[in-house]
Amino acid sequence: MKRTQTARNKKRMGVLFSLCLLLALMGCSGANGSNEPISNNGLSQQSAAPSAAADAASEEIVLAAPRDLAPGPQDAYYTSTILYVWEPLIAASEDGKPAPKLAESWEMSADGKEWTFMLRKGVTFHDGAPFNADAALANFARYKQVSPKSSPFYTLDINHSYPSLQEVVKVDESTIKLVFENPQPTLLYSMINFSSPMYSPNNFDDNGDFNGLPQGTGPFKLVQHEKDQYSLLEAYDGYYGEKAKAQKIRVRVIPDPDTRLAALKSGEILGVMDLGAIPPALAEELLKDDRFAVSTAKSTISHYLHPNGAKAPFNDLKMRQALSLIIDREQLVKELFLGYPTATANILNSTSPFYKDIPAVHDSEKAIALSHEVLGDNRQAVTLIVPTYGLDRYPYKAQAELLQAVLQQLQLDVTIQILDGAAYKEAQAQGNFDLAMAIQGLPNGDPYSILNNYMASEGSSNKSYTLGYSNARVDELLNQVKTTLNMDDRAAIYNELQDIAAEELPTIPLFNDASLIAFSKEITGYGALVYGTTLPQLERVQ
C-alpha cells in the first residue's frame, strides 16, 4: 500500500489542526515520570459504563495490544517476552544491568575467555521436561542452527550475542561453561532477555522452528493462539517462583488506537499493553473518567529521524547538523507526546548503563546558516517516509506534519509518504527516500550492537537503512572495544562513540520513549515496566 501526500498549501493548516486537536484532548497535567498509577478522582463512579467484569463468574481477564505478540512457530521466540511464557538465562534489573533469572550465578575466568553459569534448580518447562544443563545446551545448539533468525522483536543471532564462541560445555547437571576464542568481559550485558531464551529441548523441529506452542518456564503458558486475533495465557501451576495471580489472560490484537480506547471505555477490555499501547493524548482523555488509571516507566525504545546519507543533501554533514539543530525536541515531546518521553541527542537509549547524557540543542539561526552553506539560494525537494505501524502506535502523522513545516526554514520542501512495513523497509534498503521516521529498541545491556550496527562502515543498520555513514576512527574504536577487558576503558570508548554520533549524526536521535499503559480500576497490580508490564501480578479487584 502506498499513499502520497504533497501538502504545499496544507502544511501549516495540517500542523495547526493536529496541535489544536491534541491540546484540546490534553485537559489534564502531563506525566509525572513515576511507575505509579495516575488517576483522576474528579468524576463520579456512577458514570461507569457496562464493564467486562459484568461476567463476574469468568476467570478470564481481557487485555489488548496493537500487534500480535505471538508471531508463531517460525518466529525466533514464538512470543514476546512480555507475555511471560519463556524466560532467559540473564534478565535485566531496573537500572539495565544483568540480573539472575534461569542462571542464578556466574563466574568469569581471569582472562575473560571462559564463563561458568550455575543454573537454577527445581525448574520445569511447561511440558514437564526439566530445565538443566542438557536443556541449556540444546538451546545453544538451536541458536547456532537458526542464527540469524528474524523476529518483529529482536533478531536472534548467536554470532552477535556470543562472538567467537568456541564451545558450550556441560560441567554437571546444573552447570554449563561457555568457552570463547577472545575475552568477553561484557558477555552478561549481551545475554540479557532476547539473547538467552530457554525452551524445552522437545519443542524444536528439525529446522529449529517450534513444533507446537512454545514450552517455556515462565509463570504463564500459551494455551491458544489465533494469528492476529488473540493469545490466551493460563497460569502455570508448576512455576518455581511466585505464581501468576490471574488464572487466564486473553490478549486481543486491536491495531487502531481509537478502537482500543473505545474497547477500554466500553469494558470490552480491561487494559492495554505493548509499544504505543495508548497514545499520550488518548491517555489524558481517558484519565477524565474516574474508572481508569495509567502507569508509566522509562522505555528501551528510542525515536529517530534517519537521513539518507548516500545522496544529497544529507550526505553533507552540515545538512545533517542543520536538520538536528532546527528540530525543537522539547517542544515535540511536550506538544505531541504530552511530556511522557525525554528529548535526547544521544544515539544510545537512556536505559543503557553506558548511556551518556548529551543535551539536545535547538538553534534555528545556526541551522538556517548551515543549510544555506549547502544549498545556496536553492530549495530542495525531499521525501519523508512514515511506516504505517508507527501510525498505529504514535501520533506520527502530526509529527510528520510538524517536521514538514519546520524544515521549510532549511529550504526543504517535504513530501510525506506513508508506507506499509514491507514498502517502508524496501524504500530504506533501496535508498528511495530522503528522511525516515523510525524507532529502535535496545536489544540488551551492551551498547556494542547498537553502536556497531549504526556506526560501523559495514554495520547492518547503516547498510539496510542507507545511512551512508563511514568514519575510520569509529571503525578503529569498535574493533578496539572487542578486546578491551577493563570496564572503565570500555566505558571510555563507548563515551567517545556517543560523542562522535552526536557530532556527525549517522542518524538524528529525537527522544527516548516512555512505556505507557492504561487500564480499568477493575484490575489491580498492573503497572508499566521498562519493557512490558507486571502481568503476573495483575488480578481482578475482589
Secondary structure: number of strands: 23
How much β-strand is present in the residues?
A: 15-25%
- Rg measurement, Å: 24 Å
Profile the largest sheet: 8 strands, mixed
- Name the shape in a single word: globular
Which stretches of 5+ consecutive residues score pLDDT under 50? 1-57
Helix share bin: 25-40%
What's the average pLDDT?
88
Secondary structure category: alpha+beta
Span between N and C termini? 47 Å
Explain this structure to me?
The chain is an alpha+beta fold and 542 residues long. Helices cover 28% and strands 23% of the residues. It contains 16 helices and 23 strands. Strands 1, 2, 16, 17, 18, 19, 20 and 21 form an 8-stranded mixed β-sheet that branches. A 5-stranded mixed β-sheet has the order 12-13-14-3-15, with no helix packed on it. It has a 4-stranded antiparallel β-sheet with strand order 7-8-10-9, covered by helices on one side. A hairpin with a 2-residue loop joins strand 9 and strand 10. Helix 1 runs parallel beside helix 6 and helix 1 packs across helix 11.
Entry summary:
The protein has helices at about 10-25, 135-145, 160, 185-190, 255-265, 280-285, 315-325, 330-335, 365-375, 390-395, 395-405, 420-430, 450-455, 460-465, 470-480, 485-505, and strands at about 1-5, 40, 60-65, 85-90, 90, 100, 105-110, 115-120, 165-170, 175-180, 195-200, 220-225, 230-235, 250-255, 270, 290-305, 340-345, 380-385, 410-420, 435-440, 510-520, 525, 540.
